[in-house]
Amino acid sequence: MKFYIVDAFTETVFGGNPAGVVILPEGADFPDDETMRKTAAELRYSETAFIRKTGEKEFNIRYFTPAAEVDLCGHATIGSFVALADAGLVKAGESCVNHTLAGTIGIDVGEGSVLMDMAVPQYINEIGDEAGQKELYEIMGLSAEGQGVAPEAYLIPEMISTGLPDIMMPVKDEHELARIAPDFPALSKLSQRYEVVGVHAFTVNTADGAVHCRNFAPLYDIDEEAATGTSNGALTYYLYRKGIVVPGEENTFIQGEAVGRPSKINSRLTGEGGNVKVQVGGSGVILAKGEINI
Hints:
Diaminopimelate Epimerase, Chain A, domain 1, eight-stranded mixed β-barrel, alpha+beta
């Protein structure tokens, strides 16, 4: 089996979010789940994608953290199609299909970049009560007071999914974003209780006009992630619901600064009302490749 290490959502090595990618030989089925989990743990990245070709420009991808399988992973999807292009299995300008546990996803392959459809956006719930907000922000090392004030709207924590559910947690500025210091065991319990992957903290009050964010998923052995496609897809939908994201325009999210791997994630929302489509994309570079002997 071929393996790759790809830095996703960046144009330079050692930036963005690294993912393991394993391409199965043509006609081969997936290894058993425990073997894939152990492989992900051995590669030591937050997610490793296992790819099986199922047809012309059609693939089935499964995603494993060192602890468990997850339905979808944005940065590992970017990494997968950058690796598939390197292996000659896809080409720039092609549109492909990716079958995942979160559903079937369209993929547009560019020169060194990938744009992928997110699953149908879903608003799940909000944390609108004072006690719930106080608990969330205190677990994240902050006070809840004044965090949701932005020029465009009053923002509160909400659970949103475009493939994986996360809590979208607004903070008032970049200073507060940098101050976040979660109680990880408490955050794992909170994530379990709310049935989410983790917390995606963000601010729209920034000097450069981009949305800056941080992502935490200790329930899945990921204390902080450098770039999270699914979470920024969910954030795109959240901000659209608040009147901040405009349909058809490109949005830029900066993530990973706190872990020394600055990442740039792009998104676009099209449609209107309850019938919208979210796409997330970015560049990727290959750090290493080789063979796995299992």
